[in-house]
Amino acid sequence: MDYASASTPSGKRVALVMGNSAYQHAVELPNPKNDAKLMSQTLRAAGFTVLDGENLDKAAMAAMVDQFTEIAYDADVAVVYYAGHGLQVDGRNYLVPIDAQLEKAAQLQTRTIPADKVIGALPPDPAVSIIILDACRDNPLARSLAKVLPASRSASMGVGLAPVQANGQSTGSGGLLIAYATDPGAVAYDGKGINSPYTAALARHLTTPGLEIQSALTRVRADVSEATGGAQRPWHNASLSREVFIGGDAPAETAKAAAEIKASTDAATDKTDVNWTVEQKLWEEASKRNTVAHYELYLQQYPNGNFATLAKLNLDQLKTVATAEVAAVAPAGEASASASQVRTAVAVPDDVKLTVGTPETETALNLDKSARIDLQLRLGALGHVTGGADGALGAKTRNAIGAWQRQNGLVETTYLTPQQHMFLVVQTDPMMPQIRAQYEAQKKAAAALSKAQARQKVVAQQRVKRQRPPTQDTLEGPVERRGGGMDPASAAFAGGLLGGALGGIIGNR
């Protein structure tokens, strides 16, 4: 590996920074515009030429990407930062301008900016290219799009963004690094301050002099995990061919002091230094791979290491999600209780807590039958018994809504608000492909059973008909007696009338 710095004074360093908050067809995001300002300031202070914009519509975003493509073509280091709404369909990511309206399937192509276009704007080797996406916030536009996409495509939509492999993007001495605010398929948060937890951590660590970018992102991950109680864990993927120091090399006096300390302690701490280097490399690999096996390997080697606490936290999160994904699904979409842990790490946003559910707030959701069935499936997926996914929000479903509200620290009214419904969707989206598949399979099985029962009923009726003894009427129809006489039944009836009349006459005498 080439250990030369990618931030030499003579290298051209450019950045594109975009932050979208004022969405016209979705709830406004408070922090992306603030995050973009903070990131612009941070990168300018580090010597970057920054092209930035806030609250950009489709035309403005496309124009900025085109302008950046020209500016960045001969750059040594190029950074793209985006904060705002993003979505994934079929494993491809899209950035959402403020004027995007996603009510038709074709609008995915006409109203958004594909992330591929941004990647295409990056300079060729030997440049170092960095993409930072704080775009995994809960997105109501994605849900409206899912309703109009063909079933095969809407099923492929996921929460947050899809992972993009940086491997193979570089063939020379540069490379590509793609950083996400949280794990692929998860939701990031705006935070309670004026900046998101992710961007605030980036501003603290990304441009630290002498700190290599992947080590900086490891610190960012630790800060955000701590700030969100483990609910949000930044992630990155890289194929860099050299070390990259966004903040430049360490100051000369700091480097000199470090060299003197190293020289005076080499003999006594050589083994310790080597051990620390190995531990750091192992941790960086585990953090980058983000798998159970890699975290367990790190903890096996360093059970009390510098990153042991964070490794255990990440390991617990991965195991919780894995348990939920394989949990058995009960009839009509009612999952076992263990499935309720799938998104329990997702903190309840303040706007969800502040609004109390009433019949009026739920009416505002305008849920048709399919949406009510979807609601029942989601409640069942979290272990709340609804009595079946029939689209009728009866007493059992109301009790399930109340139990879900109580579980999440909300006022238990048994009626949802739009914010609560949105949060329920965020909690359960990772499980829904499995839940819906189970539900459809159960519907098909029930339909087949009903059909078989109907056939059996027809066969039984035919069998009874064949076994019934024939009667004179069924064989020959009404038969008129010879000589114009009546059949026995008619004769009996006439005789009864005659007898009654005679009895009356005799009695009156």
Outline the fold blueprint.
Elements: E1 13-19, H1 32-45, E2 49-54, H2 58-72, E3 77-83, E4 86-89, E5 92-95, H3 107-110, E6 113-114, H4 115-120, E7 128-134, H5 140-148, H6 151-154, E8 175-180, H7 197-205, H8 213-227, E9 235-238, H9 252-289, H10 292-301, H11 308-325, H12 350-354, H13 359-363, H14 369-381, H15 395-407, H16 418-428, H17 432-467, H18 472-476, H19 488-507
Parallel strand pairs: 1-2, 1-3, 3-7, 7-8
Antiparallel strand pairs: 4-5, 5-6, 8-9
Helix pairs in contact: 1-7, 7-8, 9-10, 10-11, 14-16
Condensed summary:
The chain is an alpha/beta fold and 509 residues long. It is 49% helix and 9% strand.
Average pLDDT reading: 74
Strand content: 5-15%
Structural class: alpha/beta
Main beta sheet strand tally, sense and closure: 6 strands, mixed
SSE string, helix = H, strand = E?
Answer: EHEHEEEHEHEHHEHHEHHHHHHHHHHH
Question: Which descriptor suits the 3D outline?
Answer: elongated
Total strands: 9
Walk me through this protein's architecture:
Helix content is 49%, strand content 9%. Strand 1, helix 1 and strand 2 form a beta-alpha-beta unit. The protein is elongated and about 105 Å long. Helix 10 packs antiparallel against helix 11. Strands 2-1-3-7-8-9 form a 6-stranded mixed sheet, sandwiched between helices. A 3-stranded antiparallel sheet has the order 4-5-6. It is built from 19 helices and 9 strands. The protein is α/β, with parallel strands linked by helices.
